[in-house]
Amino acid sequence: MLVAKVVHIIINTRRGRKFYMTTLGNNGFILFCSLFLAGYLIHGATLYDYSATIECHKQPLDPQYGGGLIANPGFDKGIEAWKIDGHVKIEARESGGNKFIVAYNRTTPYSVSQSFHLKKGLYYAFSAWVQLSEGSDTVVAMIYNSAQKTVIIVGSVIAKSGCWSMIKGGLTVDHNAPSVLHFQSNNTKSELRVDSVSLKEFTKYEWQENRLKNIEKVRKRTLRVNVSNKDGKKIGGAKIKIQQRKLQFVIGCATPSSILMSESYQKWFVSRFTTAVFDNEMKWYYVEGLQGHENYSTPDAMLKFFEDHGIDVRGHTVLWGADNIQRWVKDLPPRQLLSESVRRMGSIMSRYAGKLVAWDVVNENLHHPLFEERLGKNASAMFYKIASSLDSKATMFLNEFNTLEHPGDMVSIPSKYVEKLQEIKAFPGNEELVIGIGLQGHFDSHPNIPYVRAVFDLLGETKMPIWLTELNVMPCSNQAYYLEEIMREAFAHPAVKGMMIWIGWKPDRCNEMCLLNYELQNSPSGDVVDKLFAEWKTTNLTGVTDKEGSFEVKVFHGDYEITVYNPNSGANVTKEVQVYDDRSETFHVSISL
Question: Is 206 a known active-site residue?
Fold first, then answer.
């Protein structure tokens, strides 16, 4: 019989938080810990820390996971384990009780570095805090992998002077190899300060277990059915059948107008998805290729089809400053561009007001800032104000690419996305506007899954609803596998409220990712979608009430049909309910027979 000796140790960290350690031993010991970090409780070393911040703090928080693989992560030992990177001087400093490292006299973007060994098959979560001594600039954290001879950007942030900004990201590697972490900033006039660095490894099992635990926590709720007779007497032994009719979490799909011409494709689509978005049919160039000649016949017909089948529709897109817009729009002088843009908004949004669940108002605003360049920095903010007045029921989205899928695209990194979001909301009248975070999600052949989760963490701090608006994975041998990984990451994260799959199917071809072939048979990616639909649905659930007349079960958030049958009296009642996420633990349904 094992007799455990329990010893409790409380260690105060350098920033006042407590680190609890418990040892249990007989012929050895087991060490485990519980770490309170940024208000999030972690048991042991296996739970992922979802905490993040988009605010600039007076002092940085402690390193997540105690630093993980990083040696001397909080610089309590000066510059030990850290090296000079490039033409620069480094030193440890202390301010307000906080210790950090400083790179100064920089003649190149480089600053400090640390070496370690990374392993194939593991998931790495990264975080750090950075500050500049003057001005502001993007600070990039990157890791050089010697086996692949490649540099992987693991995270970035707009750093400022006078406060600390958090970088959060992650990576995986394809080869076991010595690797080096670097921090870079092009603002060489400024000192670059770094603190609370962390790189935590997770096994594939640990990473997936975190997802499963979070799904149980954020996508399910306890449903309690209470059955009684007309006099209020509780009925035990009543038979319960629970059938989910609709998942609260949105899973939708894009489609071109070809859906109007194929009854088989229509059946395939409406049997799966709750929301649709049109490929191009609502875009300005589609309905008004020639100035003053509008034709809404195709989007009208598409919308009617989806309305008839109870499918919600996203509006994509009201305005777009990309190069492929109409020549006549590009050639307009500023005053006319403004008037024509406002006319366009009034035309399409008034036509479909109250009929759509969302609008992409100014598409790809960070990459294609045409309206800001021609009309001034508040152009988009003004358009969001106009849009919200034209359709107050729909959610207005800021739809952008590469924020989620490509950390190397400095134009749309999370902190720049947040900066644009805050700029729009600061415009008079927009302060209380809910702006949906539209992350397109056009992934290449090797998605960075840890980075995806970190971006959800960061953008989730805006408290705005996140949707993957154009999800696809480019053709590759692992396309279906990566699609499943991304969909699972999104479904497991509390900040994500929906995802739209971007397949662009047509009878003769499909764009990039096909869920079905030309004969309307599922592809491997289509099988993944069907598998996840089945997994995330509570169907044909049966049970019997206890002697207290109750039956309790945990179900996915959604719309349900509950049927109760009393075998003693033969009475039968069916009731429709919505079991949604409202932060309370149990949803009570009372049924009288």
Answer: no
